[in-house]
Amino acid sequence: MVCILLKLLIFGVNLLPTFNFASTISLKDNEQSLDLQMVSKLLNETIDESIDPCQDFYQFACGTWLERNYEESKSSDLRMIHQPIKLIRQTFFDQFITGKKVLKSNILRQMKYFHRLCVTKYTQEYSYKFAIGHCERKFPTIFDEALYYIMFHQTFNDKKLRNIKLKVTNMIDNIKYSFKKLINEKEWIDKKTKHYAFKKLNSMRSLFYDMKNYTLKEMETLYEHLKFTNENTFEEAKKSLKTFDILLTKKKKLLNKLSLISLFQPNAVYKLTENKISYNLGIFMKPYFDEKLPMSFNYGGLGYIIGHEITHGFDDDGSQYNENGKKFNWWSDEEKKIFQEKSNLFIEQYNKNVEKVSGYNVNGTLTLSENIADNGGINAAFNGYKKYLNELGRDEQKIPGYEKYSNEQLFFIAYSQLYCSSFTFVSTHYLMMNDPHSPDRFRVLTTLGNQKSFSDAFQCKVGSKMNPKYKVVIWKTGK
Length: 479
Prior knowledge:
Collagenase (Catalytic Domain), 479 residues, mainly alpha, three-stranded mixed sheet, two-stranded antiparallel ribbon, disordered N terminus, 3% strand, 5 strands
């Protein structure tokens, strides 16, 4: 757990807090391990430069990715943010199941043996290539915990996690600082309420998961009673797995901690009753964050997520809780009225968005909290990134083949690519009825349309689709 302790000057002429930033990471260290060719390849596989970014930034940022994945998207839901999970699974099979990478592990031996039984069965009717692919796709989920334990220790180590925590902590510092500036500039919030807001923000904790809580020895213990014999047929092995699944479920409950299957999902959660943000391991992988990515991408990805979760502490729900996660009314009646009026403007704005596949309008009331967090989060992250650049004292390195894009433009491209996605009609229908998030397309178009920093970066004319004259403001630059 990392607690961000920032000094705060509450009363006096200036309500804006002062800070001691004591990051142990040199700003220049962030550029020593950059892989600019990797970034160039990423942009080449995602953006569509035939599209005017001031007319449809979603299509500009995701157009090539959508085209490349068009056939697969006809039958399945796809999101760019889930590609690292697919890569981790594929790497596991390529290295440990069909490859020659060695790991002293009983459960890995059982997994390899089950896979061989599966391949042997299906090569009786189909080609070897088909059998390999089929057995990977249909690999029993009961093995997932072991798969992720193994790949967790292949992907991360103590040193890498320490470096990630240091870099992310510095990002949190900068984004918190920028969010404090957003609060301080709001003329409709009085000094007393700002005091409570600063107090809550300063007390907001960040939780990172530790490697020592997930050991390979523990993983072996989970699966110690699973053993196949040389006499087992494929059908007998499958039957054994069903029996063992009950025991495994009980063992996992006894561990009383989040499974690595869940931890690898790219997610972060703000818990309003604890005033705490928990970060899953998957959020520290591309496209959210990578030590080889420029900080424009890291702030546009993970930085936005940090800002988004911080903003949840001050959205229509979070604003009802204090720094200890207790329900507390720290707003004046007039401030609550203004906050509600601004919230209603968000509802009206998002209600006008029509999702093309289903034909439904976005439910601005259902999605209000997430829309507030999207708008406040991207603004706090952008200002946090500008603070980083100011401390760096220069621009970041240019991307080969994409030198024309500024740091600020790359920030917004990175943000938008978190939402490159395609869903089937059935999934789209369900999401429109139940998901508290707006459709991915509008998380880009409407959110960025509200950001003056975006239209300035791409020099979009006032009145263009990405720079409407009217912008909705709560937790972003503007009074």
